[in-house]
Design brief:
mainly alpha, 2 helices, 0% strand, rod-shaped
Length: 50
């Protein structure tokens, strides 16, 4: 996103909404990787019988 799009978004929705949306979008990727890692660990535990 270019700076002009950020400025327009802030003008339209307000600074807190834009920042919250940005953070949620960025965290979504991290949370998905974390969920995948946990699922993988659960599968490994099931395979090891522990």
């Amino acid at each position: 996103m270019g700076l002009d799009l950020w400025v327009q978004a802030v003008e339209s929705f307000g600074f807190p909404i834009v920042i919250a949306s940005f953070i949620l979008f960025r965290l979504d990727k991290s949370i998905q990787r974390l969920e995948d890692s946990v699922a993988e660990l659960i599968e490994e535990e099931k395979e090891n019988g522990e």
